[in-house]
Design a protein that fits this description.
Blueprint lengths: L1 H6 L4 H17 L4 H6 L5 H10 L4 E2 H4 L5 H7 L2 E3 L4 E4 L2 E6 L5 E6 L28 H9 L5 E7 L5 H6 L3 E8 L2 H13 L6 E4 L11 E6 L22 H10 L3 E16 L4 H6 L6 E12 H11 L7 H17 L2 E13 L7 E5 L9 H15 L3 H6 L1 E4 L3 E6 L9 E6 L6 E4 L1 H9 L1 E5 H12 L3 H7 L1 H9 L3 E4 L11
Parallel strand pairs: 6-7, 6-9, 7-8, 9-10, 11-13
Antiparallel strand pairs: 1-3, 2-3, 4-5, 10-12, 11-12, 14-18, 14-19, 15-16, 16-17
């Protein structure tokens, strides 16, 4: 099947060439009309696109020379559609791997991003155990994941298998679990059709299928939606509130090997009278550093409306829609939840006596992929924990790549009111520094120690060098923590100073 699809250029690049940028982008928004117009010919690629991507019946004769039709019918990829036509029984979607691999993701009909009918299409009930294809959440997690070579990786709630597929590139052994047997079958097809090694697929909830086995990488895009009940397996965790996400995070600690990472997408409640950051800190297992980033917050009405639309409930009987909306708000009211946060949670197993925990809100644009940024965050935290101020002043630093400086003040003023350093990569942070901090960062090229640079600046601006050495290390720590400055090896040395 893979050979047949590649032979007709049914790939991410082939689709872009066939459909054009506008139709390709429209397909990602769920609009299929431009793609249907672009595939009105009779070429082999157009036939395969209409069959597997746009989910249109195609005459048997048009695909007989392209696909092993009889084998596909017997294996269940295709089904008779009346007359002399055949129709796809699954959505098969080209997906470009990070190194240009030609991958394919298999999901239920109408349940991929840009699917032709949406959840509940093609006769499937909205509350069935549907399997989604690749969406924004799954690609976000894939690009967040630290991609260092590991012996064993675990994908909890694999769905169509996209996280497991990525893990096969750098993990010696991949285990993928799901409560939904359909998801495990789709994941197996995704891996096989992509030419990737098979994964150890196990049915079950949370960590039950793997027991206490240890892993170097754990990833999960779980059914994190906080909902009244568990109508949709792919979406609703079936536990109260955000308990499923809490259980995932807490259970990862004992199953992470030393130096391993666990990375999750999650929702969490903002409860009246409780700081959301304290709530998340209470989830963290012992022995793990953590970095939690809240990307978005919605009040409970916005949140309920989002997921009611996701299930197509807004197209149902108005009375049924109202009843379901009421049920969501009743649940939030019972739990005293006023809003719901969404974001990323990363754990790094260090067994340090004093774990590093960063909990922050960052709703601003970032530049994916962020896997290296995530890894470097924890390396910088370990560096700062092992260097007191005296050690920082002896160390050498360099300005990170693609940092720009902005001076902000009134037009014509002799001096700026403040100086901002801004990243154009990774988290794209911006931080305010004083003129000494800006001058220090600008001079850092790894050739001089921090203390010597400060002494030169003190002489230049007429400040007491002792006072400057006492004041500036706090700014240096902030610039290192946020990735503006990178520790550099001593001149003549070749060892990376970051642990």
């Amino acid at each position: 099947m893979r050979d047949a699809l590649l032979a007709v250029a049914f790939t991410a690049d082939g689709l872009l060439d066939l459909l054009g940028a506008a139709a390709y982008a429209a397909l990602a928004r769920g609009e299929t009309v431009p793609a249907l117009r672009a595939t009105r010919g009779d070429t082999p690629l157009e036939s395969v696109v209409r069959l597997f991507l746009l989910q249109q019946p195609v005459p048997h004769a048009r695909v007989a020379d392209v696909l092993p039709v009889q084998d596909c019918l017997e294996a269940g990829w295709l089904a008779p559609a009346g007359g002399d036509e055949v129709a796809a029984t699954v959505d098969v979607r080209p997906y470009g791997g990070p190194a240009g691999e030609d991958w394919f993701v298999v999901s239920d009909l109408g349940c991929a991003v840009g699917g032709a009918s949406g959840i509940g299409g093609h006769g499937r009930q909205p509350d069935a155990d549907v399997v989604l294809g690749v969406g924004g959440a799954s690609t976000t997690l894939a690009q967040l994941t630290v991609r260092t070579p590991v012996a064993a990786a675990l994908d909890l709630g694999t769905g169509s298998g996209i996280q497991a597929l990525h893990a096969t590139r750098h993990a010696g052994r991949v285990t993928a679990t799901d409560t939904n047997p359909r998801a495990l079958r789709c994941a197996a097809l995704t891996l096989a059709l992509s030419g990737a090694p098979a994964a150890d697929l196990r049915e079950g909830s949370l960590y039950a299928p793997v027991g206490d086995a240890g892993y170097d990488l754990i990833v999960s895009n779980p059914p994190f939606v906080i909902s009244p009940g568990a109508r949709l397996t792919y979406r609703d965790g079936g536990m109260g509130g955000d308990d499923l996400c809490r259980a995932l995070v807490q259970g990862a600690g004992q199953r992470l090997n030393e130096g391993g990472y666990a990375q999750f997408l999650a929702n969490w409640e903002h409860v009246e009278g409780e700081d959301w950051t304290d709530r998340l800190r209470s989830w963290l297992p012992r022995g793990c550093d953590a970095w939690i980033v809240q990307r978005e917050v919605q009040d409970v009405t916005q949140y309920a409306e989002l997921w009611l639309r996701d299930a197509g409930d807004h197209r149902a009987d108005p009375a049924a829609y109202t009843a379901r909306y009421d049920a969501w708000l009743d649940e939030f009211e019972r739990r005293k939840a006023k809003a719901v946060g969404f974001g990323w949670i990363t754990l790094h197993r260090t067994d340090a006596a004093a774990p590093s925990v960063t909990v922050e809100e960052w709703p601003h644009p970032v530049e994916q992929p962020l896997g290296e940024t995530v890894r470097d965050h924890f390396r910088r935290q370990a560096y700062l924990a092992s260097h007191d101020d005296a050690a920082l002043l002896e160390a050498h630093f360099r300005l990170a790549d693609e940092i720009v400086q902005e001076q902000i003040g009134l037009p014509g003023a002799e001096d700026p009111e403040h100086v901002v350093l801004r990243q154009h990569r990774g988290m794209r942070r911006a931080t305010k520094v004083d003129t000494v901090g800006a001058g220090f960062a600008g001079v850092c090229d790894g050739s001089l120690g921090a203390g010597r640079i400060l002494d030169a600046i003190a002489q230049l601006v007429g400040e007491d060098p002792v006072l400057l050495r006492d004041r500036i290390p706090a700014q240096i720590r902030l610039l290192i923590e946020q990735g503006f400055l990178e520790p550099a090896p001593q001149p003549g040395g070749d060892r990376d100073p970051l642990p």
